[in-house]
Amino acid sequence: MRIGVLTAGGDCPGLNAVIRSVVHRALAGHNDEVIGFEDGFKGLLEGRYRKLDLNAVSGILARGGTILGSSRLERARLRQACEETEDLSRELGLDALIPIGGEGTLTASSMLAAAGLPVVGVPKTIDNDISATDRTFGFDTAVGVATEAIDRLKTTAESHQRVMVVEVMGRHAGWIALESGMAGGAHGICLPERPFSVDRLCEMVEERFARGKKFAVVCVAEGAHPAEGQMDYAKGEIDQYGHERFAGIGNQLAGELERRLGKEAKPVILGHVQRGGVPTAYDRVLATRFGWHAVEAVHRGDFGQMTALRGTDIVMAPLADAVTELKTVPVNRMAEAESVY
Ligand code: F6P
């Protein structure tokens, strides 16, 4: 078989582990040929690809980013691109395509599959917000980075008697904020799923200072927003990919806390640091398992599906199920973290 693989959308620790695993399983297990498209669907549309053999994927298991490069596709171009992709992959004689990506990529993959293309998706995102899978690789790494940041911010906050507002990624789902906030023991956690109360954050800080604790750390997801009437808040613009470019809730919230509390409050925006660098062992294993199962799915003819984690098993889930609704933080998970405001 001739299998194409590509990585699209925002990068994520563990992408290289999937590519490596696909190549290993396809070559050693099935004697397939694997080609890697450069820069996501752009490379497929422009016919930019290279053959991937064992040497091409040697030494990449622990490497962050993606050796194939990635890109985002503008929403308006998506359908047109799907049609072109269909022709191109036929021209290239592809027996199967394995796109590795998040919501946008899986939506495109689902459209390609509906058009009759042999597609097996692999979900990825540090946000962990893809439905139909319990986890995506990259999330564990991002939570680890954010947790370490909170640990570090606590010691400097204490030395200077400051309030630290650490902004983590998560546009629509607050999984990173929830889990890094819990693991780091943040005193306040603000999620996109529930408008937060600045009044309650202030009460929490005041209460801590009143009992002699001279610092506080608030962990806020980039997509979190204040409840109506709590503070002046500038919303972000929608970009060409249909994503909100956030106006920086971390900065805005730190300014509001400083003004209201009369205490120094500093914003720390973690940004893409959460997506870079070495994947954790958990993410490497999950990514490797996804790659192995994607190749097996290709050989079974399980097209229009993606690999998914259910409990400890890897199963196949329809691509359409993965993209209908994002997996957001449910109320019972918020209740377990007393510090969600
Ligand atoms: O979806 C993953 C993610 O890292 C989000 O958490 C974040 O909002 C977005 O991608 C950032 O995208 P970009 O790399 O285009 O800035």
What does this protein structure show overall?
The protein has 2 domains: about 1-140 and about 280-320, Rossmann fold (3-Layer(aba) Sandwich); about 140-275, Phosphofructokinase domain (Rossmann fold, 3-Layer(aba) Sandwich). A hairpin with a 2-residue loop joins strand 12 and strand 13 (about 315-320). It is built from 11 helices and 13 strands. The relative contact order is 0.18. The longest helix is centred in the middle third of the chain and has 22 residues, at about 140-160. The chain has helices spanning about 15-30, 40-45, 75-90, 105-115, 140-160, 175-185, 200-210, 250-260, 280-300, 320-325, 330-335, and strands at about 1-5, 35, 50, 95-100, 120-125, 165-170, 190, 215-220, 235-240, 245, 265-270, 305-310, 315-320. The protein starts with a strand and ends in a 5-residue tail after the last helix. The strands form 3 sheets. A 7-stranded mixed β-sheet has the order 3-2-1-4-5-12-13, with helices on both faces. A 4-stranded parallel β-sheet has the order 7-8-6-11, sandwiched between helices. A two-stranded antiparallel ribbon has the order 9-10. By secondary structure, the protein is an alpha/beta fold. 6-O-phosphono-beta-D-fructofuranose binds next to loops. 6-O-phosphono-beta-D-fructofuranose (F6P) binds near residues 10, 125 and 171.
Task: Give me the strand/helix succession.
Answer: EHEHEHEHEHEHEHEEEHEHEEHH
Side by side, the strands of the main sheet go 3-2-1-4-5-12-13
Relative strand content = 15-25%
Fraction of residues in H or I helices: 40-55%
CATH fold name of the largest domain: Rossmann fold
The major pleated sheet works out as: 7 strands, mixed
Number of domains: 2
The CATH architecture assignment of the largest domain turns out to be 3-Layer(aba) Sandwich
Radius of gyration: 22 Å
The helix tally amounts to: 11
The CATH first-level class of the largest domain comes to: Alpha Beta
Spatial shape: elongated
| Regions with little confidence, pLDDT below 50 for 5+ residues | none
Q: Which cofactor or ligand species appear?
A: 6-O-phosphono-beta-D-fructofuranose
First-residue to last-residue Cα separation:
53 Å
Structural class: alpha/beta
Mean pLDDT: 94
How many beta-strand runs? 13
